[in-house]
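Handoff note, outgoing to incoming analyst
You'll be picking up this chain. Sequence as last confirmed:
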Amino acid sequence: MVKTKQKPTSAFAILDAGTSKLAAIIVEPSKTGELNVIGDAIQESAGLRGGEINDLESFSTAIGNTVQLAEDKAGVTVKDAHLVCNAGQPNMQIIRSNIELSDAKISKRDLRRIVSKQNDIKTDDSRTIIQHEQFLYILDGQTQVQNPIGMFAQKLSSDSLLLSMRSTSIANLKQALQQNHLNPGHIHHGASMSGLACLSEEEKDLGSLVLDIGGGTSSLSLFMEGKVIYTDTIAIGGIQLTRDIAKVLSISIQEAERLKVFEGTVFAPSPVSHTASARSSGIPSKGDNFILSGGLSDLDTITLSNSEQIERHLLNSIIKTRLEEILEKLMARLVQAHMHQAVGNRVILVGGTAKLTGICEFVSSIWKKNARMGTPNHISGLGEREDIEPLSAALGMANYIQSYPQNEPIQHQTRAMPFGRFGRIGNWLIENI
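Most recent structure output, in case you need it:
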């Protein structure tokens, strides 16, 4: 059953649990209900692989250290924590609830009956619902009914969109919080929360795709008419790019990471034979798990720590090859879910790997859509700081918590016009999925 949750009244923590970094903010509600950030911290993550916990003790320790640092900056101790992550194989499904009407004239009691039935919706025991959105009403097949009270019908229906995560992943995440004496609150999908922070109201309304390329995962979140209608995650991210660089160039992981961050680009390579250039530099153009994309050029070089020189386009080609794979896999997921038709012309990039030079142009060329970097909207307490991109998902969760009673279907169960234009999404999804 979906339970009513109240807005918080004391300071609490929000954690963004990524494979490579942990970001935490301490948020305090004001007397007017607005949320103020009073402390923040970013630390190296541990105990996660591909977004999932693989060492609970290490992950719990990393959480404790990050929250402690944020608490020190805020000057408070928190008891409650909300978590953003890309774990749990997020999944969205639509379920239709129906009730037969004993009295052909619909009353408020009938609306309460169907909401009660929706609140009793259960998913597979292996999954836990983390978000529940209701569409408009359906009367004997007539869709998009906003206020059915007083109308006549034999059957009243309504569709619900459920976002769920794997129950074991949620249980392990909660355990890590509890080991730090933190009460688990909301747990939500990272790309979805980043979208809430970085998208304008127009972008959320007209349709936008958030592409979150993090350290160990790459995620999608599709917005339409102000709501999240699809999410997905694959266990490939910036760490794989780093490993590719280390393997091809025979350098350490540390130097490969430095190369990626400070020298990495994904500009289109020059039209030269990459096979000939690769052979001339002693670098294979094909390996057991990679085939270099594009040509190499001697026009620009990078000097490694051992004084070796490599063509800049070689580094570009290594990064570009793995990014092409990520984009292909994510688009395949969209096609498989029949969601590619709903994707508009806007792609917003977030996550550490999204900082690579030229990546917006690269995504635009691959997906034939307008792409831009996502920058979170400032909220009280952060001033005009320019380095808040790593806090995007945590800030999005703050926005979600602040508006949570408006997002929770049970809060609207007796309202005559519960969900505005969102009913059109339900109609589109039912017809196209």
